[in-house]
Design brief:
By secondary structure, chain A is of the alpha/beta class. Chain A has 3 domains: 53 residues, 434 Repressor (Amino-terminal Domain) (Orthogonal Bundle), CATH 1.10.260; 123 residues, Rossmann fold (3-Layer(aba) Sandwich), CATH 3.40.50; 127 residues, Response regulator (Rossmann fold, 3-Layer(aba) Sandwich). Chain A has 13 helices and 12 strands. In chain A, the strands form 3 sheets. In chain A, strands 2-1-3-4-5-11 form a 6-stranded parallel β-sheet, with helices on both faces. A 4-stranded parallel β-sheet of chain A has the order 7-6-8-9. Chain A has a two-stranded antiparallel sheet with strand order 10-12. Chain A starts with 9 loop residues before the first helix and ends in a 10-residue tail after the last strand. At the A-B interface, α4, α5, β2, α6 and α12 of A face α4, α5, β2 and α12 of B. β2 of chain A pairs antiparallel with β2 of chain B, so a sheet runs across the interface. Chain B binds a DNA duplex through α2 and α4.
DNA sequence: CTGTTAGCGCTTTCAA
DNA sequence: TTGAAAGCGCTAACAG
């Protein structure tokens, strides 16, 4: 099987420098303890031959790739992008690279996608709101080292980072109730989404202990388009305030409402969730819950680093999003 | 060197199934032409042993990883995120994964970063506005297969996708001139950025053939913070319209101006560049140049696919951004 | 200090 | 049709 890749191999460098491959390997990895002149010679031969070590072969020999996967439901969502950006930056500091995958690519086969990408690297940071608990549990074993985002689960032995959607959405509802709103409508996220379920649970709770408040739900999604699409239904719902699944939806909704001549917040209040970088720049600026995505990405790497180096990862954390009151919410119209 | 990874190997599966590794390999890759019953047996043994082929070993034997790198100056910029999202989606359809790197991680050593990540995969899609032409030329050879974004260059034999910043910024300037603005100020991008240079050249050109128009320049950057930071200088510049390096800067500037009590567009017009998804949602909505980032990502993959399969890639393309007039520009105040 | 050698786990030619 | 064996390029025991 001759395959001239064009790149020089360690054996060629060794031959040209009159030493053994082991010596070249040592020199290239700064583990060489012999005479400086020979190290110098090896280095210069390597340069002459434009030798560049095969990361692949090295990985195989070492049994590790120094790469991890980051799997999210939607790479186009700024919330996940922020996590990716900080995760990648943190991992890079330790010589790790990140491989990305958008599970929307294969909505049907998330487990397959994750397993496939896992085989290419050393570990995975998984953000899979739509995967069922059962699937997740059965998959977890083969995925380790694994860090979970937003899917804390007793049955899975993997560090997890999560966001308290439940209490977060209640803060939002409370804020609206305080403003006098008595009829709210929640635009739901993707069907089957765990994080959507937490929001719904939180809202149910809230409604239970707030007798005067009614909370309707209408199906939505996770994108601006979804928000835009439900604008008319939201206007016609009779509610005076709308809680969107996330900021993207809220922004689309805001736009749709304005197009329909609904004034925000005079006629209707609107809230988001995430506090993506642009939430503060909308018209009006969006009242939302601030989730520290950069922090999540960085923390995910800390856990992961501990895992891959055989240490004990720091404890799991649950982030409590912070209510960020801006201009899109106001007193209920009478 | 015993290293029990825990995962079954092809040899173990072969032994358990009473066949040779070669047979297992053939079965796993659907290249097996023998008796169906033995294929069945191999498959079931593989499942029992939870065998999952080592992508690493396979890559080494095959001489390819089915992964490409995507290197950008700033992973936190929505423009690059849009490209990443579509690139990743397109590549995934052909069984390729993408490895990301943010060159802001190592501002000093972009060439090193790129070389390092290139060694981990089969090819690289490079977006390196700040690298010098000389560096790029000397690097290109060792990077191939290579697709360049925004760095068309005669001396480099690599497909390139670019954006006509030069004429784009002129469209913007013309739009402002048509509105009666005679004194513009351009907030420059990062120092040494090629795409910034193109904008500056375009503006110089424009000024040359528009005698009545004066265009100042002030140093800026590429982020919202940079835009925010120059707000006061922009207000005091005496100009009636500001062209920001990109949308991020424009959004920060918009915010800063408003904080300073400057009305946009009544007192001053502001423009961006990129048309990121949120440009339409700012207050006022941002007049900008629309760059088809998703298209760029998808096209980059098309070129790359051709390259890695030894075909001739489609011709280079230069995208002409489309002027998107929205609310942040208006008639010059008198 | 340096080289020999045996892997890492898979693919593929070649021969049976 | 199937298997033996030789790589892919690198690392790390173990000798010397």
């Amino acid at each position: 099987m001759k395959r001239r890749t064009g790149a020089a191999t360690i054996a060629e460098v060794a031959a040209a420098a009159g030493v053994s491959p082991a010596t070249v390997s040592r020199v290239m990895n700064d583990r060489f303890l012999g005479d400086a002149s020979i190290a110098e010679r090896v280095r210069s031969v390597a340069i002459d031959l434009a030798y560049s070590p095969s990361h692949l072969a090295r990985s195989l020999a070492l049994g590790q790739t120094s790469a991890i996967a980051f799997v999210v439901p939607d790479l186009a969502n700024p919330a996940f992008q922020a996590m990716l950006s900080s995760l990648s930056k943190a991992a890079a500091k330790d010589g790790y690279r990140v491989l990305v995958a958008d599970s929307a690519e294969s909505p049907s086969d998330e487990p397959l996608l994750v397993s496939e990408i896992r085989r290419r690297c050393d570990a995975v940071v998984l953000c899979a709101p739509r995967m069922s608990d059962a699937e997740l549990v059965s998959l977890a074993g083969s995925l380790r080292p694994l860090v979970l985002i937003n899917r804390a689960n007793d049955q899975i032995d993997a560090p997890s980072l999560s966001i308290d959607y439940r209490s977060g959405i209640q803060d939002l509802a409370q804020h609206l109730a305080d403003l006098g709103h008595r009829h709210l409508v929640f635009i739901e996220g993707p069907e089957g989404s765990a994080s959507n379920r937490h929001r719904v649970d939180g809202l149910d709770d809230f409604q239970r202990r707030s007798p005067g408040v009614r909370i309707d739900r209408i199906p939505g999604g996770a994108t601006s388009e979804d928000g835009l699409a439900v604008a008319a239904r939201v206007r016609d719902s009779g509610a005076t305030a709308a809680l969107a699944f996330n900021d993207l939806v809220a922004i689309g909704l805001l736009n749709g409402l304005i197009n329909l001549g609904v004034r925000v917040p005079e006629d209707m209040s609107v809230t988001g969730f995430d506090d993506i970088p642009f939430a503060r720049y909308t018209t009006p600026p969006l009242t939302t819950l601030s989730v520290p995505h950069e922090e999540l990405g960085a923390q995910a790497w800390h856990r992961m680093r501990a895992l891959v180096s055989g240490e004990k990862p720091e404890p799991n954390v649950v982030f409590h999003p912070r209510l960020e009151v801006r201009g899109s919410t106001g007193p209920a119209p009478r």
